[in-house]
Amino acid sequence: MAKVILHSIGKALEKALDPAEAAKNAAHLARLEAALDDKREEVRAGWGEKYIDRVHAKGKLTTRERIDLLKDDGTDIHPVGSLVNYGLTFGPDDKTSPGAGVVTAFVRVAGRITMVIANDNTVASGSWWPRTPEKIQRAQEMA
Length: 143
Hints:
This protein is α+β, with helices and mostly antiparallel strands. Helix content is 41%, strand content 13%. It is globular.
């Protein structure tokens, strides 16, 4: 297990960089974070509204809706491995597998932090894709 250092190291930002350079770096970081948020939202949507509607037409909830009901009220879901398989296509139809077709997240349930692993039923009805087993195994190791 790695040791986590709980005290500051280095200099205060104001002493290390001039304000213009710090602002430039902050703006660049904001652009990178926005691009990352866009990718996460794309993965969160699965294969899109059509597949969400299909799940609802069967009288079922999407994976993320079930996780929302499972978690303690007022707590957040902390997904991990969201970008597994991001940008890759598979098969003759060039299908994508957002998040490798599985949602893995830290979620507080009954006051305890748990790891939730759930097939994403908006991505090929929860089928497994390349890297799905590795993603699940990694989530189990984190748990």
